[in-house]
Design brief:
single chain, alpha/beta, five-stranded mixed β-barrel, 9 helices
Length: about 250
């Protein structure tokens, strides 16, 4: 059964600690902090209000200084999912938004269309989480365990139903391989259920948080997008992002 979706509360989790790129959310990209660049792209997706959930006053102030909304969350959250769950309760305590969309804070080049694509699978009533993926075109990336593979099957509605996520190369045999991109649209009840569950065996083994949802019987469907947005984890990534903004 399909339903028409109209809006989501978009939350961008951000924490200051990062080993490979210190103070990453505040890294300057052509005059604005990276977290503000992500915020702008999320706003351009035009699916609802956008806020940054942070654990540091410098991030909070940087977002506010650029006209954005930020909320302070606890510093001890184990994951971004825990952080956005707390933030959703602070921003929307009455539960007016029944979809919470989590956009990672290190994808300043993400296209608004990609954000909307993660939201789209929730038009199917049985789907608990929507996400996105793109077909691998580079075998080196496909074979790299840092690039997560989505094992899926078409769902008959223009998206794919996720059967598994893995750092291995799967499935076996001829056919496309899909790179999973960690942007999620949660039904609010599914997010609450998710954060209340302990880490699951396969989640701990693969170091992939989304497996907790699959192991609990929750349904994740994925939209296919044309290409993966570059995430910024290193100084070299940051230079590439700056170069991309300079050419736009």
């Amino acid at each position: 059964m399909e339903t028409r979706l109209t809006a989501a509360l978009v939350i961008i989790p951000a924490r200051l600690a990062a080993t490979r790129l210190p103070r990453k959310p505040l890294a300057d990209i052509c005059g604005k902090p990276m977290i503000v660049r992500v915020l702008e792209q999320a706003r351009n997706a035009d699916i609802g209000p956008v806020a940054v959930a942070c654990d540091d006053k410098d991030i909070f102030e940087a977002v506010q200084d650029h006209g954005g909304k930020a909320v302070m969350t606890r510093a001890d959250h184990a994951s971004g999912s825990d952080r956005i769950h707390e933030a959703a309760g602070l921003i929307d305590p009455d539960g007016k938004h029944d979809v919470i969309l989590n956009v990672q804070g290190d994808v300043p080049l993400i296209a608004p269309e990609a954000i909307r694509a993660a939201f789209a699978p929730l038009s199917i009533a049985d789907v608990d989480l929507g996400t996105i993926m793109t077909e691998f075109t580079n075998t080196a990336f496909r074979d790299d365990p840092n690039f997560v593979k989505a094992v899926t099957t078409p769902n008959g509605h223009g998206h794919h139903r996720a059967l598994y996520f893995t750092r291995a190369v799967a499935p076996h045999g001829d056919g496309p391989y899909f790179h999973h991109i960690g942007i999620y649209a949660y039904r609010r009840a599914a997010l609450t259920k998710f954060v209340q569950m302990p880490p699951s065996p396969l989640e701990q083994r693969e170091k992939l948080e989304q497996l907790r949802a699959l192991e609990a019987g929750m349904r994740i469907d994925a939209s296919v997008i044309d290409s993966a947005p570059m995430d910024v984890n290193t100084p070299e990534d940051l230079e590439r992002a700056r170069a991309a903004y300079q050419t736009n």
